[in-house]
Write a structure and sequence with these properties.
The chain is of the alpha/beta class. The chain is built from 21 helices and 20 strands. The strands form four sheets. It has an eight-stranded mixed barrel with strand order 13-14-15-16-17-18-19-20. The chain has a five-stranded antiparallel sheet with strand order 2-1-5-4-3, sandwiched between helices. A hairpin with a 4-residue loop joins β1 and β2. α7 crosses α8.
């Protein structure tokens, strides 16, 4: 027998029977167009294949048809397909079948076929009319409905399970979400602490084993709960039967010492857990967000204790959400951002220099939280652009003023921000000092320093001594000012040691070409002593408090 069929689709039929059957039919049609022979390759297909002649005689069946009907091949060949017909298939179905084959050359649907022992089986059937070499054939492909239904259910179930641990996945969580509406339930978000370090130490293969062992621990400890693996080392528990009792058990579980043994090596597992009891007041999405944030609060505490959502935590998390939303929506910035100004004192100079300080008003968080969070985000340079625009406007209105503005070091690596600096006029550059902290700017590359220098702006290294005391940064950026952090003046260091540090920085400034500014001046005695040492530029509450009003005169002694 000539080998006609390669039928690459046959082996993957179980993956999606309904979708692949028409494709298989098309492939068989293409093969029959080349020859009228039917080959052994079809014999091992996991569903029935029949070829019927124009005179309605069966000329071929594969082994599946023999097994499913109970007839042997010799009893089927030459017979009319009515051999399998049962009274359960309505005449209307057959009229529709014949009409579609005549008009369209194709029909698909369900037929109730009869086996040799009289059983009735429901089968999904595809029938195609094929004309080849002047002859007409009918190709029939059919599969047991109950087998298909079971297989599809298995596929649907597999789509809801995590392949590594066997736990429910996010698809399973989405499915459960539909049934939780209006119910009281408890949700717990769990994260394995330092999981990345475990992966780095032993490799991802052992990391996978750790996830599998931990999954079994969760399943054995919380047999009444839905257990999910959401991604990586993040897990979730949901209980909608006895949520309050579940939370009590969970708190005790978090206090236990958890260990796993892999290849005779025992490792401790520390987890962070956040939970929410939803009594119908929260949407599922909000419950998920609050549980996630409570977990991060637990991680921040570093004690492995369960953090449950109470009024205090809810207010803290709401403020955090509000902060995130404010950072993302730059349209709100003009309504809630403003500048205050603190005047600097410069000996023997009448030019008024003020530092522009950002403030947040009318929101649940302050400027400290805002600056700390946005400093880690890509929007930070947009904030610096906003401040720069305000200062440029003030330069026009107040010709006697110079301004010092704080910028994120990352902004000076941002092409859009650098482009704005290049557009400043020489007069504007002369009246603005850009302050960056040494700690944040410690990772500048040589190329980045060169790009900053190319803008020809005035630079000041702020909070000097608090970070990495980066002399390399001073040599590369050549700032005109270095501001000694206020902590050196306000802390309880021995005075002679602080004075020695200041003398050394004054000498270095004279050699390299920067001016030393000392921050944190709060007493007259402190100011007098610094003047005796030779410091000529100061900033602190003794000299001027931050104010939303700009000064009209320079500070004088």
């Amino acid at each position: 027998m000539v080998a006609l069929f390669t039928l690459s689709n046959f082996h993957c039929f179980k993956l999606d029977a309904v979708v692949n059957l028409p494709a298989i039919t098309a492939e068989i049609q293409g093969q029959l167009a080349a020859s009228t022979e039917v080959v052994d390759a079809v014999d091992c297909a996991p569903y029935g294949v029949l070829v019927v002649t124009e005179s309605y005689e069966i000329s071929y069946v594969n082994r599946y048809v023999e097994r499913s009907t109970g007839y042997c091949r010799s009893q089927i060949i030459g017979q009319n397909p009515r051999l399998f017909r049962s009274s359960k298939t309505r005449n209307k179905t057959f009229r529709n079948l014949y009409a579609n084959l005549h008009l369209n050359g194709h029909w698909s649907g369900y037929l109730y076929n009869r086996t040799q022992d009289g059983r009735i089986i429901k089968e999904l059937s595809f029938i195609d009319k094929i004309v080849s070499a002047g002859k007409t054939y009918y190709l029939v492909i059919r599969a047991n409905y109950h087998w298909l239904h079971h297989d599809n259910n298995q596929l649907k179930l597999a789509a809801l399970k995590d392949g590594l641990t066997g736990l429910w996945n996010r698809n399973g969580l989405n499915r459960l979400q539909q049934t939780l509406s209006g119910q009281t339930y408890a949700m717990a978000f769990i994260d394995i602490n330092q999981f990345k370090l475990f992966n780095d130490k032993y490799g991802h293969q052992w990391g996978d084993k750790l996830l599998q062992r931990f999954s079994k621990l969760l399943q054995s400890s919380f047999i009444q709960e839905y257990v999910f693996r959401l991604s990586g080392d993040e897990f979730m528990l949901i209980n909608n039967r006895e949520p309050q009792r579940f939370l009590t058990r969970l708190a005790s579980y978090c206090m236990q010492a958890l260990t796993v043994t892999i290849n005779q090596i025992t490792e401790s597992i520390n987890i962070s857990v956040g939970s929410v009891l939803n009594q119908g007041q929260l949407s599922f999405e909000d419950t998920l967000r609050y549980a996630d944030m409570c977990m991060y609060l637990s991680k921040k505490n570093s004690d492995g204790c369960l953090v449950q959502l109470h009024d205090e935590q809810k207010q803290q998390i709401d403020n955090t959400f509000a902060l995130y939303n404010f950072i993302e929506d730059t349209r709100l910035w003009p309504q809630h951002l403003s500048l205050v100004f603190q005047q600097q004192y410069r000996l023997k100079q009448q030019t008024i220099c003020v530092e522009a300080l950002l403030r947040v008003t009318g929101l649940a968080f302050d400027h400290v939280s805002f600056l700390a969070e946005i400093g880690h985000r890509s929007q930070s340079y947009l904030l610096d652009l906003w401040v720069l625009e305000q200062v440029l406007t003030l330069l026009v209105q107040h010709e006697a003023l110079e301004f010092a503005i704080n910028v994120f070091p990352s902004s000076l690596c941002q092409p859009n921000f650098l482009a704005h600096l290049h557009q400043l006029t020489p007069k504007q550059r002369a009246r603005i000092v850009f302050e960056i902290t040494e700690q944040q700017a410690s990772c500048y590359t040589f190329a980045q320093c060169q790009a900053i220098l190319a803008t020809d702006i005035r630079l000041s290294i702020d909070d000097f001594g608090k970070g990495y005391t980066n002399f390399d940064l001073i040599l590369r950026l050549q700032p005109e000012e270095v501001k000694l952090d206020a902590s050196f003046i306000l802390s309880d260091y021995q005075p002679q040691l602080v004075e020695g540090l200041i003398n050394a920085l004054l000498t270095l400034g004279n050699s390299i070409g920067f001016v030393l500014t000392v921050e944190g001046i709060e007493t007259s005695a402190m100011l007098d002593r610094l003047l005796q040492l030779g410091v000529c530029k100061f900033q602190g509450y003794l000299l001027a408090m931050p104010s939303n009003k700009l000064p009209r005169f320079a500070i004088t002694r």
